[in-house]
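Reviewer 2 asked us to include a model.

Predict the structure of this chain.
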Amino acid sequence: MNLKERFLQNCFQFTQDRNIIENFWSEIEKKYSEKSRHYHNLEHLENMFTELDFVKDKISNFSNISFSVFYHDVIYDSTSKSNEEKSAEFGKLRLQKLNLDQDSVEQISDQIIATKFHQNSEDNDTNYLLDADLSILGKDWKTYIDYTKKIRKEYSIYPDLLYKPGRKKVLKHFLELEDIFKTEDFREKYEIQARENIQHEIDHL
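Predicted model (structure tokens):
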């Protein structure tokens, strides 16, 4: 199922207003297709859904987590430190118009904000979202290198002098976590490779 079909099906659970759903999809597509996005784009969303589909039976509210995927990077500016908060707010306004109940809107908002710091959550669905978001870290080396190049392009406004120390800090933060991946499923699949990839990148920065 492609991203648009996913989004439409998810929305139709809450409203039959096709116009509003189509408008919201166009908005998402436009945001994730901005020319400054080399990694945080529609392909990133597709990859997250591929990962989450594998563990769908472990997720208690797949509808909510799907909305969180669609909106978690909808606002993305490499010079901003409040992308997650802005994305959560952006998503909130749309989801309220889709007639989602307030608890779901709040949960989705919380899940989006959780992608800022990637801390272990008491909410299991949130942990699966965070793990899917970081799954690229545990891929094969060729895929990982491609990802690092795309991230560098997104931060091309910064010279190496600024970029490299900042990137190192982020990577070291991941290595200092007890577990990069919060769920057993993702830990088993990606933890060892992710740590090797990250250390390798640090060594070559």
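The first helix runs from residue 3 to 12. The chain has a mean pLDDT of 97. We have added this to the supplementary material.
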